Fold each of these.
Amino acid sequence: MVFWQRRTAATRGIERASMIRTVLAWAVALFVSFPFLYLATSGFKTEVEAPKMPPAFVPVPESLSGFPLAYTPTLENYKLILAGDFMPYFINSAIATLVSTLIVLLLATPAAYALTLPQTTGKRNVLFFLISTRFLPAVGVIIPIFLATRFLGLLDNVLALIILYTAMNLPIAVWMMRSFFQDLPADVLDAGRMDGAGTIQELILIALPMIKNGVLATAFLAIIFAWNEFLLALTLTTTKAATVPLYMISFMSAQGLWYAKMSAAGTLAALPVVILGWFGQKWLVRGLSMGAVK
Amino acid sequence: MTSEANPALFGRIPILGRFGLWIWRNPLIAPALLVVIVVTQAPFILTVIYSLFRWNLQRPENTAFNAFGNYVDIVRDTRFLDSIVTSLTFTVGAVLLSLLVGLIYALLVHDRFFGRGIVRTLLITPFLIMPIIGALAWKYTVLSPIFGVVNWIVRQFGAAPIDWIGMYPVASVVAVLVWRWAPFMMIIILAGLQALDDDQREAARMDGAGPLGEIRFVVLPHLKKYLQLSALLGSIFIVNEFDVIFMLTQGGPGTATTNVPFLIYQSVFYSFDIGHAAAMAVVTVLGTIIIVTYLLKLLGSLMGDLD
Amino acid sequence: MGSITISKVTKHFGALEVIPPLDLHIEEGEFVVFVGPSGCGKTTLLRLIAGLEDVTSGSVAIDGTDVTQVAAARRGLAMVFQSYALYPHMTVRENIGFPLRMAGIGKAEIARKVETVAETLNLTGHLDARPGQMSGGQRQRVAIGRAIVREPKAFLFDEPLSNLDASLRVNMRLEISELHQRLQTTAIYVTHDQVEAMTMATKIVVLRSGIIEQVGSPMELYNQPRNLFVAGFIGSPKMNFITGEKAAQHDAATIGVRPEHIALSKDAGAWQGAVGIVEHLGSDTFLHVNVSGAGPLTVRVAGELAVNFGDTVFVTPDANRIHRFDAAGNALPRRN
């Protein structure tokens, strides 16, 4: 609210304004986080406690139970879910996400590098073609993809998800990595050429080590998108290859509304990517803007 | 036949020949490009072809060429027009509100203050959470008539609880979309604020601009392209929104929240009407191209010359 | 080994002609400096020789062999860049050894050669450091080390000193000159700084808009500039140019006199003028004297001088040091 007054923060009124801003920012943050913080805490409650109002937020030992806003945490729900059929879904998600991300990096790295070289022609066309595919609605291709997958016998097979997630994340990965390659000082790459490195050697020995963070950032983003993907998983898998989001759906329809267990399952499903995103915060903007914003 | 020998494999077809040659000369790019073409372009061509056929998976014996019949059908069918209106409502409403909320978030957390890192992290989390779980949390912990916290507050004031999703389905979906997309806007706007030269702000102040003048004359003009970028990217993602609707409302009540992607999904997987769904998909893609074209122009100008 | 011949080389960037047809011969062992204002094409010319840019037409030959189509790395040249262009993820040892590694030389020999080079450049203690941990001067030495380890036919320097601060620049200038004395390898050095050109070069090439204005030794360029551009570019402070009647007296459209070739007196002299700004450098004093009919002239006087703004003084150009130019700006032969 008052960020433009930073430089003259010596005066009193501004200190007060900055206090208000701090409080306001925290209030907004807590308000916004309510749904997931509540979901996360509910997973540690018993089925009896979970739907109680007002929402209990403070975990306390059993001896203190009964206080307002307090609950006694339990790991029972997590044990039940992990002992149940959660793991196969989790493993499918992990395989589809990690394998597709690996392939994305293998394919995107050389492409992105070649798209920064002066001798490559038609760069603009290739880049815009790639990104336009990412921007067009998935429903535009879902029908033939479904039919083709069925025709190839790949329905309910993780391989289908791997292929589709690869194609889904490739354009963004190419754009993003290209923006990292482009930021490399031209002189260093010229020095590499003078020193006798060919294109591939230059990529592997000079350029790639210099954008280690960029590779990591690209991987982060690809993982986030693949892990959270729902429409394709819903369309192409049923049981054998079903991923975590489908677990949630099947859990809810099969078990009914068990608040605490549903919350625990939701937390488990969302957590890997949320944590990854927290660590990769500073790189998000680059990926989300296709490298246009740094 | 030309007298000149043509070395290219696809020599008879000039465009394919040129493309083939380009692919051959760019072995580093070719694999990525081919994967994307095979997985995304080929299916779209099939979608266009399907859209010209009468084809229902449940009555395959009735399959026949239908020319533009499916297109005529969907134009006549009010459900499709309704779903377009719903899509636009969601997109415009959610994008504008997310921009505003995202701008407020960004201004709140741009400067250093106690716990800024945690606050930022909390603010971006809705965007990281798997969309169907975010929607699930809203459905059962916030908006639910029995268990939702909003209704608990309402009850404290002595009012009767309200079935928010049932009574205000569009507003509920927009609320969840804004919750999810405002962080996205914030991230881009924050990057914009960081790129703003402090000297410019100080110069404006030296020139006599007050805090509001500074925002109006320096900060907002500087943010313009970032706001445009986030609005366009946001539009493209939100116009395709499927997950939140699937989890929150299943397109209902009735068809109140059935947007185009959800309608197409229903046509394929509930009515198995491939031809019909394909025609809607083609129209959707063509419609999206308009936004995409603007977006690509903007991206191009932000990235500078590419060739 | 290390003569370079450029024949009818041109370079276009799209429709823009950066280098019109250009010929230049560089003898083995010379220290050639390309100098000119920014945008004159000097760096482009260097990159054409290096092979980092392709010529649009014409040819480049090294030791009589046409290398126009030869890749940068195979031309046997080494380059030192303005930004040093070190590989940030490699240690100094790996940086210097990189060209040898690319040439497929064995590990033991690389290690030996890197040690030798490091010793010459006082880098022995830093071999395991990374460039990020070093000062600008040290990085520059690593860049030079990476160039000399290959024992190239010629060194190419692209404004290597412009990222250093003033005092370090003078030191590195001397180091590079000494290196050239010792190795006697051909060097091509690009700079916009005419002081570097004058102090380091055995041959200066003055470029403007891709055209060679003059080639010669530093003193040739100082004493016999071929045209107004070279006359104005070489020498500091700049040569004074006078047009009009005073030039006509010498049968020229323009005459030029260097500030150090004008005598100053408070009592008598050829031209009378009023003192404007006075710049005291300690070792020298630069006076800006407003002479009627000649305009403002810069006069350089050795040592200190007690004159004030507005004083009337007399200035006398050294008749033997007057440069005459025709209306097109080309130098006319000396009279007398």
Note: Residues 1-11 of chain B have pLDDT under 50 and may be disordered.
Amino acid sequence: MLSSEAIEAISKAFSVFFMGKNFIRLVMGLLVTIQIAAISVLLSLFFGTLFGMLMTVKNRYIKALCKIYLEFMRIMPQLVLLFMAYYGLTRTFGISLSGEAASVLVFTMWGTAEMGDLVRGALQSVPAHQYDSGMAIGLTDKQIFRYIILPQTLRRLVPLSMNLVTRMIKTTSLVVFVGVIEVVKIGQQIIEGNRLTVPTCSIAVYAVIFFMYFFVCWIFSLMASIIEKRQKEA
Amino acid sequence: MALLEISHLKKSFDKNEVLKDVSFSVNKGEVVVILGPSGCGKSTLLRCINGLETVQDGKIILDGEVISNRTKDMHLIRQKVGMVFQSYDLFPHMNVLDNILLGPMKAQHRDKQEVVREAEEWLARVGLPDKKLSYPRQLSGGQKQRVAIVRALCMNPEVMLFDEVTAALDPEMVREVLDVMMNLANDGMTMLIVTHQMDFARAIADRIIFMDEGSIVEETEPGQFFSNPKSERGKKFLENFTFRVYRK
Amino acid sequence: MDFEFIKQVIPLYIEAAGLTLRIALVGILFSFAVGLFCALIRYYKVPLLSPITGFYIELSRNTPLLIQLFFLYFALPNLGIKLSSFQCCIIGLTFLGGSYMEETFRSALETVSKVQIESGQCIGLSGLQVMRYVVLPQAVSVSIPGFCANVMFLIKETSVFSIVAVADLMYVAKDLIGLYYKTDEALWLLAISYFILLLPVSAISGYAERRLRYAQFGSN
């Protein structure tokens, strides 16, 4: 178990949040992270839906291209992609991206691939006889999609994309590598700034960041599992 | 003395009473068919006898031994009770022979040669002498169900339970399974059968137990039950299987 | 492109890839053990242990590996727990991978239907025998694609290890960019290295998935 010294050290460490605006600053840092995640998620949902529909097109070449894009995005670690966007684009094309812009670009490209695959899976999971029954009662293609395919696809898609959102928020933690001033960076600044007064404060700062991420992601995970459970019961 | 004796059996799921004070007995070599509308508790009754469900009250006695609500050695009791389900329940990752051998070898620790010989004999008798190395996915529903029966028989059970074993089969495959059961009955196997095949029930049963809403409504000879059931509910039930009015 | 430079630094990349692989391998092995253990606890709903495992899984699945590493490497020394960066990486990867493996294994166990278990019981098998002869063999083959996906995911996740001063591929690339401004060369080599590491895993995982889909022993 923890010694009494350790307990004292911990309680002392947490006092750092009552000094100045330290806690507020950390929350603001978290908001930067969330902002990047939110923009990437929204863009990914939009482009991912289009990409997913593109993947179900019956053209061989389009299919192959989509597959290559998806595989590339899946195989490369997101951090490598981030480096390529942040350092590589600047060098190769002379486009200078801020850390934030590079992050949004990379997470959107990756999220589009992942979301696309979810959309494709959901679209293809609707059994063929559903199309047949739609046609049998005289619906047009558009009506079949609107009234039969879309509702079933969405039903499947909602919990899955919630889980993708969780993954994207977690991945957003990587932006600290490309110099974005977000929650970890601010945490490091706080630790640095209080090095003399509260030398052990890193334990408190990192613990708080850990649980900040946890709660943000957990909300989405929880929603996903609630929706899934409700769908199963219905 | 009866081989299997059920006395005052009560079973409920939460507040839903599925079996309300059910009592009957089965003699050695007797074939008893349980009939009744869906949800009357007949499947649950079979599951209780095989210890797949615990009971709230009452006793199940097999060969003079109380077998209900035993927890520790239930798997030993089950070796004496064979059961075949509605869904073909063969183990998909094993071939036919391994499916059959698993119980006798792992649960009963019997000699492999002996069980293999027994299995081959049974497979030949149910018309599948050349299927022992096939995997379940290579068999038709009727074939799978016959293998499932052989698998249960190779445990040398004292009583066999059949829970709607033909309900999931294509119509043309029903007969091959029923024939196997008929042969078993003629060999003197003690059997307890739940089925919706009325002709078959009439042909195979020594006795019919008609259940409704968790209780036994009547217990009669098959001839009597099918021509002139004693209870109103029995009459109503049988009407589901015939048409009295024909279109002109 | 400076090919002379590339030739010079390739050994650095190979060494770094070796280190990445070593850490990944150990981490994956531990994840496998933790995952299987937790999956069995949750599958059998072991009292007390099951909710604790559930809590661990929520914690692990909803926090980034990077933050877990920060905590292990920079925060724990304040409590007198000093871990080497190698240890931090292994612990971090296991903490993360354990929950992913648990999910794969448990859902694979749960795909084995109740009637399969009951028919095992019906032929007199004990609980342990049902697990060994009926449930596990079926669950293992179901879990292979998920397992491969986890392996790939965990190898990818190792890319953050440079943050705790592990000289892995990212670390080398960052170094070369910082020291020599050879951005293009460093990044290309980085991307290619990860491709070489991950393409086989991706191929195996795709193969396993197809095999499972088309050549299942299939119960009906």
Note: Chain B touches chain C at residues 50-52, 74-76, 78-79, 81-83, 85, 87-93, 102-103, 106-108, 135-137, 141, 144, 148, 151-152, 155 (CB under 8 Å).
Amino acid sequence: MPSPDSGTAAVVRPAAISAQGWGWRHSGRATQAIHALDLDIRPGERVLLLGPSGAGKSTLLHALAGVLGEEGDDADETGSLLVDGESPRARRGRAGLMQQDPETQVVLSRLGDDVAFGAENLRVPRGEIWKRVHEALDDVGLKSSAGDGFALDHPTSALSGGQKQRLALAGILAMRPGLILLDEPTANLDPAGVLEVRDAVGRCLDKTGATLVVVEHRVSVWKDLVDRIVVLQPGNTSESGSTPAVLLDGAPDAVLAQARDMLIAAGVWVPGYIPATRARSASVGSGSTAGDEVLLSARDLAVSREPARRRGFKTIPPVPVQSGLDADVLAGQALTVTGANGAGKSTFALTLAGLLAPVSGTLSAAVGLSDGAGTDPFKWKAQQLISRIGTVFQEPEHQFVTGRVLDELMFGPKHLGHGEDRVDELLERLRLGHLVDANPYTLSGGEKRRLSVATVLAAHPRVLVLDEPTFGQDANTWAELASFLSELLDAGTSVVSVTHDREFTSVLGGTEMRLEAAFQGPRQKAGAA
Amino acid sequence: MRQELNLRGNNALLTRANPLAKFVAVFLVTLVLALSIDLVSASTALLGELALFPLAGLTLRLLWQRGWPLIIAAAFGGWSTAILSANSGRVFLDVGIWSISEGSLTLGLGFMLRGLAIALPAVLLMSCTDPTDLADALAQKAKLPHRFVLGTLAALRLVGLVAEEWQTIGMARRARGVGSHGSPVQRFKAMLGQSFGLLVQAIRRASRLAVTMEARGFSGGQRTWARESTYSRLDAWVLVGGAVLAGAAMLAAQWAGTWHFVWLKQG
């Protein structure tokens, strides 16, 4: 532990933020991303920013970090936004920004170098940099002397998502910023990673007293750490009087009490509220009913994402991340795969889905599913696969194959030659009707998720495999998805999902299969939830 | 794949040398070999290089694992030179247009050894040089613009991710019914689509990384360096070693009378 006066506290001067009628239009867009923002944040205040997608939260954080747009772009700025009374662009380094995707928060390949990167750019002298690096790594709990700490030359690629975000925080702290900006810092993390990052942020704020602005729609995670909640609303730039960007502003409990219903309606995860979902119908699900048809069964399965490797002329099979797995996928039943990060949950699910070849063991499709295509799903042609097993990936964009929402939905049915009639029903059921002509890449996060589910279902698979379907989703999309899946289950579809989400698991019911971290290895059996 | 580029655990002597010194040494050797096609200079250089491998922490097995495509390419190059080049001296084999004579065999062998002697230093250099150290040396010692050098270094880290992303997108598209089955035209179209998907993701990721770097104050302006790139006495030895190896190869060929410049016609 550093002594109190040698710490960052002595040097960090918290920043003040002042916005007056501030608005920003991105180049190439017709309307402003954020409009008429009036907001004052005092030095050392900790603010949680809430609001529906499209309210301009990320735009505001980018602007405060001084990285919004470049000179010469045809972007438009109105009003003023100042950090410590100056333009944020001129004060780059005064604020540190953390974004969502952990992979892009790491710059260099060695732990210590990555922390030093920002300080180097701010022209901190060499001796001072290493002092700050050690201190920052200590503050976020990654120092080599700590329990789960690492050496300075530890490869950053070997860190988990939560550790990468903590590393990013260390890199920010080494710059000694007066303002810390977090843009959904935990949206891509599992529950343990979320707490890791939140606690590290809390410790660092207590120590430095820096100002904090965090955007995040899981309110319960940040509520106790902030002392103010600001709710933004999408700009309305019609001539008949524009609405201000700030809808509500105040102490956390007051804002939550005052606007609870409004926030719930906007899809915010309000503490203590679990969105209502459709219940599974009572007739199915108790396990021993006559309708228990096995569609897929895995016996002594070993799985790996790595293909077999070539070493010169030799072929070496990959080391399985999990082995000895037994599981049955039943019609009209959910199978939930849970476990720690890196336990091989997704790898197992992708193998079940016929997308990865098993390293050893067998995966066989029953006649009811294979329908004449053979028992090994990995050997099925792509078109045989999609009408039997549908897979929804964690990142919806990976699955987009056209430039228009309607084409995207018609893609499967067109290639199969049937099922086009179901597309309208899916459009309506997943509220995509108004978006048929939009480009899939331009949709919001929730819309992309709904579209990716709809496109896979358009091919009518009997088994649906979902990889972390609820990651980063707002409460409304979450509830819709859970209700829709419960409906599909009642209709006889089998749903396999990889998830950390306990509420989601309990809505779907069925069987939970827990995978332990790989190196503990022996046999894992599916047990009833 | 990423692990293989990682130097942790390699404590060999040459890992401690300045990358720039190693670069210059390798350049000297390569330059000499590029000047002459002959057996003697190439085999002298090759023997010298093999003797240096332990200093870079390389074993023959590691060399084969990392360099096998280059080794096979060199062998094929030598073979095709042997059967296709003009005959001189005794003819060993004659099958229609393909023939192997004393002269063409020597030329082919020389070609192969030269290929190896030029390719292996690259393998040697890569296996004892950390990209971060190389970037530091290029920016601090060679005074290349750091914006470019560090940008490339950061992008290099994403290259490992691209391989993973390619696999994921391939699976994600198979799950949409775009398969790698069918006629060559269909496969080509599927590949094109997958490449496009990869490109979109790569650009998005790169622009997020650019924002991260910019938010940490990265620009073309002045900066300090946490890691100082330094020269030591070892670097002088590396340079001397490169010069000696290059000189030895040249002198050996002169002495044996086999030296001739590549652009002179074979006589």
Note: Residues 142-228 of chain B form one domain.
Amino acid sequence: MGVRRVMGIETEYGISLQGAPHANPMVLSGQVVTAYAQAHGIRAARGSWDYADEAPLRDARGFDMGRGVAHPSQLTDEWGSDDDPTMANVVLTNGARLYVDHAHPEYSSPEVDTPRDGLIWDRAGELVMQEAVRRLAASPPGINLYKNNADGKGSSYGTHENYLMRRSTPFAEIVRHLTPFFVARQVMCGSGRVGIGVDSKVPGFQIAQRSDFFEVEVGLETTLKRPIINTRDEPHATADRYRRLHVIIGDANHADVAGLLKLGTTSLVLELIEAGAIRESLTVRHPVATLQAISHDPTLAALIELEDGRKLTAVQLLWRYAELVAGHVERTGEGSEPHTAEVMQWWTQVLTKLETDPMSAAREVDWVGKLAVLQAYRDRDGMEWHDPRLKAIDIQWSDVRPDKGIFSKLRAAGRFTELVTADEVQAAVTSPPEETRAYFRGRMLDQFGDAVVAASWDSLIVEVPGQRALHRIPMMEPQRGTRAHVGPLLDASSDIADLVDRLRADEPT
Amino acid sequence: MAGQEQIRPTRRGGDDEGPDSDGGQVSATKANLDQDVDGLLDEIDGVLESNAEEFVKSFVQKGGQ
């Protein structure tokens, strides 16, 4: 299998109305979704999401949390009336979901099957948000969006990764072997932040946006008492075969290499776990405190103490995982598979740079690139870390507008290594990935959008003119409904009735 | 896209061993960074919000997931 598996990224964007910091963010987020949906003829008000199979309170450890004890923000499957803009929720022709999640507009990428495609469809989401902002700017003051994860005043919002796993892998093994990896992973994938602590009260710079917001090792919550390993068990697929591992600890990335490594190295470590190929204990003694200590030390000298007494830097611990993966893919023969080879090559290069001189990874890793700019400012203007100008640069780094976003400006100037082309990203705004069921979803929205009454990750509900009953098309297998499976069938279907008949005939999804 | 060749990571324990491929590149990158750092800051100066303090103060988010 190597690095390939079904995966995806959900990103909640920071949102602001200039001059009105206390404007209702749910209403603003609804305006973002609606602005994009209306411009593309997508019916936002219809709330087209089929929630029948969602179960956000199901816990991977095997019990359901009672509704009575859940915080209201955990109830992601309840929704209001059709005309409530704060519940705006649409599916795009690229297979993604664009909607209001709590107080943020969120783009959930379509399911992809390589880290590279994950990068492409995540960046496509940036263009979606960019277009929404451009359209809203027509009515001043407009609404601005930021691809970051913290406001520096105590609030954080997530960028979640999802990985399809075999149900047969014991969850305890995932917790055991993934926790040390997540404690260290931030040095490759963190996006950097000005300020220490959830409210940034302590002046300074740290590696990851999110690390200070994690309080426990394992748990179901995502908005409070955030856990390093999230147990939400909502597979959106055949539950006895699959688990969807919901990872909430990552930062939103702008840099391609860091983004590729976030998805790629995690997928490879999951492969190790599924194969039972980690035979040593890398258990960290105090994972939560260590997570934060690592984030607070951009020199990368901070040590991770293992339960067996060994002390390693984050880079050394990541080398250990990289070696285990390299040995494993060599044995399975997957090491030469191009996507796996690409991830392994960057993994090796970035770790080498980080251990030689962390600042030498400025073209590959977000936090390093950000720190280089901030340090240059400090050197030129003698700024202290509490200087509001440094905080402003930190926030503006992630502004989605190409003429305002500092990262965008620097990337355009060739200061970051790009792994995908602007054309690939642009095409992904409207086209779905071809190797997962997202292809079927996206093509259906494109070709028969008027007939699709509701959609979800694992189903579509369509209305056939002249028929009273709606048709529900289940899509419980994430690797079916690909271009190879349903492309010819969709091409041949003249209308929705014809398509439903053809689906009945050979049930390809 | 990376080539097909297999890359075997090797841990570089001590400081006696430099990176084999881009040790030279690292210092070159640093020199370039120093050289055009002024240009870099000029680029950013051009787009920075004029009232940093007010801008930072008004960036208030509700917590999310």
Note: The interface with chain A takes residues 1-12, 18-19, 21-23, 26, 29-30, 33, 37-38, 40-41, 43-44, 47-49, 52-53, 55-65 of chain B (CB under 8 Å).
